[in-house]
Amino acid sequence: TTWKPSFRVVFKTQVKRILVITLSNIGDVILTTPVIATLSKEFPASRIDVMVGPQGKEIFDRDPRIAKLIVYDKHMPVAQKRRLQLKLKKLRYDLVADLRNTLFPLLIGPKFRTATIQRFPKGIMHSIDKHLYRMKSLGIKELERSSYIYVPSEDEEYVSRLLKELNITDPIVVVNPGAKSHLKRWTPEGFAEVSDRLVRECKVNIVFIGLSEDEEVVNDVIKKMKYVPYNLINKTNTRQLAGLLKRSRLLITNDSAPLHLACAVGTKVLAVFGPTDAKRYGPTGEFDTVINKRLACSPCESATCNYNYECMKLISPDLVF
User: What distance lies between CA 190 and its chain's CA centroid?
Assistant: First the structure.
């Protein structure tokens, strides 16, 4: 009888060039990085390109595993999208892993692709597991569940210089009171009280982080504190923030991008959740903790609240501490 190679063997030998279509928001992008780790392990000799939204570019633009970074803005003109499609088709990808449910895999015609519309079993809840489930449809069984971000040495050195300039010494606890939606923010009073207790009882240095849009809420927390913390809003880019979190003992945060950055560098996370579902977006580390109130209406995944934000307001500083 003639020996016939298995589908897996044929599949692996035919895949030389891979495109991963990932998401836009930084937190969502980090949750897709286990797919890239899985593909890197499955196809160690293959070239991997990544298509990502403008906000998530910094996650990949220095990553040695990524050959080409394609920035896709969903608001770009139709003619520009068409040119991008033609450009991708010329690159002749063997495999496209689409984590965004776009039409690109159908339009550029790879040999192998993930399903355009994917149904997930009920037991698969977390976003990471949903992304990895798409790999199973390709026959890939060895899945890498850990998220990651590549932090170059110059970004690590920048963080070291910044901490030295500001005289911030270990132990460091990073606090992130901001979030894209105000519904996902725990109370400023709560963050202030927990931060003060950490300084007083645990002798740590409290470092606040955030973007320019978080400035108001961070200043509000700082005004309510008895001790003087450090404010690093707008002092770091995404990779540098990952480097800072790597140096920290703990991150206390709402459901937001820094939560996933901390997981990606192995820093312990205490996450305060309200309207969003921690089973879908929560931290993944062995010692990470989620604080939430199990109300009848929470998690609601809603953009509005009819109950005066009780799922967040009822979380006490004592419970978080």
Answer: 25
Alpha helices for 76-152 (secondary structure H):
78-90, 104-108, 127-136
Helix (H) or strand (E) run with residue 198 in it: helix 188-202
Which residues, other chains included, contact 262 with Cβ-Cβ below 8 Å and sequence gap of 6+? 174, 245, 248, 251, 253, 268, 269, 283
Q: Count CB neighbours of 227 within 10 A.
A: 14
3-state secondary structure of 15: coil
pTM: 0.92
d(CA 133, CA 127): 10
What residues pair up with 207 in beta bridges, in sequence order?
174, 230
Closest to 316 (Cα-Cα) out of 272, 278, 283 = 272
Model pLDDT for residues 150-192, shown as the tens digit of each residue? 999 999 999 999 999 999 999 999 999 999 999 999 999 999 9
**CA 62 – CA 150 distance, rounded (Å):** 7
Query: Which pLDDT tens digit goes with each residue over 61-104?
Result: 999 999 999 999 988 999 999 999 999 999 999 999 999 988 89
Distances from the Cα of 281 to the Cαs of 55, 127, 149, 203, 213, in angstroms? 19, 6, 17, 31, 22
Distances in Å between the Cα of 164 and the Cα atoms of 167, 218, 248, 319 are: 5, 22, 14, 33
Q: Helix count (H) and strand count (E) of the chain?
A: 15, 11
Q: Which tokens is 20 given?
A: 């991963």
Name which of 94, 19, 79 is nearest 52 in CA terms: 19
